[in-house]
Write a structure and sequence with these properties.
The complex is a heterodimer of chains A (375) and B (419). Chain A is built from 13 helices and eight strands. Chain A is an alpha/beta fold. Chain A has two domains: 8-153, no CATH class; 162-373, Vaccinia Virus protein VP39 (Rossmann fold), CATH 3.40.50.150. In chain B, helix 11 links the parallel strand 12 (291-294) and strand 13 (315-318). In chain B, helix 4 runs parallel beside helix 5 (132-140) and helix 11 crosses helix 14 (354-371). Classes of the chains: A alpha/beta (375), B alpha/beta (419). Chains A and B meet through helix 1, helix 2 and helix 8 of A and helix 7, strand 8, helix 9, helix 12 and helix 13 of B.
């Protein structure tokens, strides 16, 4: 029985947008709902354990529910229940109903049923045999799937505490102008990942670029929704998965890019390459590993599922996925130390050390990579 | 700005959710002076026969200009034969078979399609995805096309002809996020301009009578179901679950089925079946209910859930229904069941805890007011349409028009023959 609400992305209305108070109110109500459903779930388990309802009757009543449930998307989470429907349908009854609203009709139908019985029996026996073979095959498949699911679960990273997960900051960023410049001439739509409050979408629209955005956080999207922007509460990988091949003129990747696991990163690059039209532009903004390590708490640093990459690594990965990559541009927070004056003692040695420190630790902590899909 | 709605049938007599939604939207939109609305539809009101029951030509219905065109043929028994063949593995159906299925599903309205091709509207809105009128309109439209899919997870959704047709649309309007997720999953239309709009809810218009008096059950507490009483809507399951519940929990609690009965009416001493009732009686019954139950797993929006919430009545929904589950989990205004056991425990909890009912009802009321008032809905819709118009018609692949099926035995509704 599902007792928890879906992921936070679906907990707040798409639009019109509630103010902050309404959003907090909604979150509180949803938490209350979760608590109530958890209590009901516990009560269901208690009653089931008590055995107060004959097992056969309970199964019959549950079968009734499944009979009128979709087996498509909902069925994914209930393989065993769906399989039981297959099992139940594998038998073909040859006793055709003979009722009719015409008196002679019933007689004729009975006659036909009797006359064709030997024939139908022969055919149906083979159909039933086939159906049971298919059903057995499904049981094997489901066993394998459940084994795989158990294996995948052992590789799952722990969730970060909710309050330590950073969200996209509001307002324009240092790299917005460069991103707009790179995307100004694309013909198809541009997708902005982790679009936050939609500031970059506004800037792109002002430059005549047809752009839309996705962001995993509903709450962060609220200002964009209020301005009527085309934004959806989705993660970038999940969204690209439902975009047609070569449907996009440009993609802007930022934000959660730094959190991706290696397999997710690979999937993202595959999807971005296939969803961009040939000649399309990919703009990638991220933080350097050093800048990231200095800006997050130890808990986040230790538990984060993935780590940011250096600009050079992204350039390498993009190149291997069919992109031509321009020279990365660096920017963002800059804590570089100034050189000491030439008249200071050992100035040359000290300034060389400062240069080394700046390069390694204190220089610009972000970068922008612009790439073009070539093949 | 001029908008042309294309819908297979239209009228106050049409009960279907998608068609009713189209009419509600058209009627509200035409109140905006800057918008001109015309509805292009068939002369049929019955979606099973497509019999031309209304006169062809132009009429005005509740302020909306309606142009009706005759259907070229009635539905034939060939449809059911092909449907039975394709629904087992719709993805594997050939493009030709899939197009034939759409043509047989109908309604085939050549005059309507010609009118779309020659329309001077700035934007065409097709509603819902399933019918030949939509596929043909997308194929011939010169103006940008917006599709209101009203999609369910059903076999027809996976036919390749729809996938090909939907490459040529310029925008999508969804009832719920669940519907968007489904459409994106099946058709990969994630990059298309889209909006999750929903529908507005009317103000309650009760007559002031106690619901129990309308139902003839006095002051007994009751649950209510609102809508077509139909097996596919889960009504049979609800009746069976309720009967079992009463067997195990004797008491005053009653269940009311309120709406037209298209299947055998449930027969139980604690179940009241009203048939079709007046709008005032509907609101009165709803207002007096402890809980409104929607057992259907196949809702694309479920306006009745929002109507219950405008009165502060909590809802109990089918846990397998993505649309009603989305309303409940986003609002905190209702609970759900996915087995007899959870139905029993949830009904126990809801009927025995007035505080919980009030809290859920209030959460639902707040959610509905915030998201589904008509002015807000129309503001968002017009802004979206203006945006689609500004983008213009995409370069369509231009599938060819469907061919009108010929021959075949006309389908006649049960009771009228075909036995």
């Amino acid at each position: 029985m599902p007792t928890s609400s879906p992921t936070p992305s679906s907990l707040t209305p798409d639009a019109p947008v509630p103010d902050g108070g309404a959003a907090a109110d909604t979150a509180a109500r949803v938490r209350y709902l979760d608590e109530v459903m958890a209590e009901i779930d516990a009560e269901v388990r208690r009653r089931r354990a008590s055995g107060d309802l004959p097992a056969g009757l309970e199964a019959e009543l549950d079968e009734l529910f499944l009979e009128f449930s979709p087996v498509g998307l909902q069925g994914r989470a209930r393989l065993r229940e769906t399989l039981s429907l297959v099992d139940g349908s594998a038998y073909v009854d040859i006793a055709v109903p003979t009722a009719s609203n015409k008196a002679v009709g019933s007689y004729v139908k009975r006659l036909i049923r009797k006359g064709l019985g030997w024939y139908m029996n022969f055919v149906v026996a083979q159909i039933v045999k086939f159906a049971w073979s298919v059903s057995r095959m499904f049981h094997v498949v489901v066993d394998h799937i459940e084994d795989l699911e158990a294996a995948v679960e052992t590789h799952r990273s722990p969730d970060l505490p909710a309050d330590t997960v950073p969200v996209a900051g509001p307002g324009p960023a240092w790299w917005a102008a460069a991103a707009v410049e790179a995307l100004r001439d694309v013909h198809d739509r541009v997708l902005v990942a982790d679009c936050g409050d939609g500031a970059l979408l506004d800037t792109l629209a002002a430059a005549g670029v047809d752009a839309y955005g996705v962001d995993p956080s509903d709450l962060v999207l609220e200002p964009a929704l209020a301005r009527g922007l085309d934004v959806r509460a989705e993660g970038i990988v999940a969204h690209l998965d439902v975009v047609a091949a070569e449907a996009l003129g440009g993609v802007v990747l930022t934000g959660s890019l730094q959190w991706l696991r290696p397999n997710e990163r690979e999937r993202l690059l595959d999807l971005a390459a296939s969803r961009l039209a040939v000649g399309g532009t990919l703009v990638l903004h991220s933080t350097t590993p050093e800048g990231w390590a200095a800006s997050v708490t130890p808990v986040v640093r230790d538990l984060a599922p993935g780590r940011p990459l250096h600009a050079e690594t992204w350039a390498h990965l993009l190149g291997s996925h069919g992109f031509a990559v321009a020279q990365p541009v660096r920017g963002g927070a800059d804590h570089t130390l100034a050189h000491v004056g030439a008249d200071a003692s050992d100035a040359a040695t000290v300034n060389a050390a400062i240069d080394a420190l700046n390069d390694l630790l204190l220089g610009p902590t972000e970068y922008l990579v612009v790439a073009t899909r070539e093949r | 700005m001029k908008l042309a709605f294309v819908t297979p049938r239209y009228g106050t007599e049409v009960i279907g959710g998608a068609e009713t939604a189209a009419r509600m939207l058209a009627e509200r939109l035409c109140l905006r002076p800057e918008w001109e609305v015309v509805v292009l539809t068939s002369c049929a009101l019955d979606h099973l026969t497509w019999e031309n029951s209304e006169p062809a030509g132009t009429t005005v219905l509740n302020g909306v200009t309606v142009r009706r065109f005759p259907t070229a043929s009635r539905r034939t028994l060939d449809y059911f034969e092909l449907d039975g063949k394709l629904r087992v593995a719709p993805q594997a159906a050939s493009l030709a078979d899939a197009r034939q299925w759409i043509a047989l599903n109908g309604p085939m309205c050549p005059g309507l399609v010609d009118a779309v091709a020659g329309s001077d509207a700035d934007v065409i809105a097709c509603y819902p995805y399933l019918f030949a009128t939509t596929v043909d309109a997308i194929a011939v439209a010169g103006a940008p096309v917006v599709l209101h899919p009203a999609a369910h997870d059903e076999p027809a959704l996976y036919l390749s002809a729809f996938r090909r047709s939907f490459r040529d649309i310029d925008g999508l309007v969804y009832h719920t996020r669940a519907e968007r997720d489904l459409m994106e999953d099946v058709f990969h239309v994630g990059a298309r301009p889209q909006i999750v709009l929903g529908l507005g809810v009317n103000e309650p218009a009760g007559g002031g009578r106690p619901g129990g008096a309308v139902l003839g059950i006095g002051d007994r507490p009751y649950l209510c179901y609102l809508g077509r009483v139909d097996e596919h809507k889960g009504c049979g399951m609800l009746a069976d679950y309720f009967a079992e519940y009463k067997e195990r929990h004797p008491g005053d609690l009653a269940l009311a089925f309120v709406g037209p009965v298209s299947a055998k009416a449930p027969d139980h001493p604690d179940i009241v079946v009203t048939g079709t009732v007046s709008e005032a009686d509907k609101w009165d019954i709803l207002a007096g209910a402890q809980v409104m139950v929607t057992p259907s797993a196949y809702e694309s929006f479920s306006l009745v859930v929002l109507e219950a919430w405008t009165l502060g009545v909590p809802v109990l929904v089918n846990g397998a229904c993505a649309a009603t589950m989305e309303h409940c989990t986003r609002s905190g205004g209702g609970l759900w069941f996915d087995s007899y056991r959870s139905f029993e425990a949830t009904v126990d909890r809801l009927t025995g805890d007035a505080g919980l009912r009030d809290a859920l009802g209030e959460a639902g009321r707040s959610y509905t007011a915030r998201n589904y008032s008509w002015p807000a809905i129309i503001d968002r819709y017009t802004a979206f349409l203006a945006d689609v118009v500004a983008r213009g018609r995409s370069a369509p692949l231009r599938t060819v028009r469907l061919e009108v099926p010929t021959g075949g035995t006309a389908y006649v509704r049960e009771g009228g023959g075909n036995d």
